Amino acid sequence: MTVHASRPFGRGGLRVAPLSFGAAAIGNLYTAVGDAEATAAVRAAADAGVDYFDTAPHYGLGLSERRLGAALADRTDVVISTKVGRLLRPVTGGRASGDTEGFAVAADVERVWDFSRDGVLRSIEASLERLGRDRIDVVYVHDPDEHVAQALDGAFPALDELRRQGVITSYGAGMNQAAMLTRFVRETDLDTVLVAGRYTVLDRSAADDLLPACLERDVSVAAGGVFNSGIAAAADPRPGATYDYAPAPPGVLDRARRLAAVCRAHGTTLPHAAVHFPLRHPAVRTVLLGMRSADEVRADLDLLAAPPPDALWADLEDAL
What we know:
36% helix, alpha/beta, two-stranded antiparallel sheet
């Protein structure tokens, strides 16, 4: 099964399919993935027409970038994005411990926050080496929640300069919140944003300000975290499901179960609705899904294959 026709992404002539590959999982997010399994996932996606792959130094302390670069070494027909804001620095003294930020890897390097111009340039240089490429299509400023001033003074101007020079095609910001992304859309000349978890069937807060601002400023949106870290990935959400990387509060679980029941009444599932919901907004060009195996790639492609019935959306709105 293949993905649907591509859509414009950013202002530099890039195009991406509606379904994109989130590469945190092949950086051993939560559980380890073997090299062969990670490679098979990336190649299965590319062979099926997935043409946009998103990674970051943060994901597995560089492992995701290295694996993605190796798997796509012979593919020049894909869009790759990575991120800046966390430099990787070798750990000095003592033995490497396990990573403390959710990735099943040895922490032989450590993350150092750096949104300065110099930090951005060094981060991109290191990412190019790990990816084995001579250019990166899209670069996001990654999670600058506590570093707004440095991002505005350092990272964004640096990326703007690189875009003017043709070193990168587009730049933007990737965050788990909508309010600060909206500020960046209005105060910088970025042309892409990656918003995670804030425009989903369960949380539509990005629709208030971020998405209208993106339409006004011709900024393309990649929607990530459409399952809100797990709860919307189940056709029948159960107690213990995660929402935004923590156990779902009772109210959120109740809402998810109501929406799941509406989906069943329309002959579909909550995960199916979760994948298609963001794509209905004209600012959203693609949905990023984490994939760690060829089987997961095929399952995600099946979700994309046909949209839910139109009548579903009004009933989901009523059930919120």
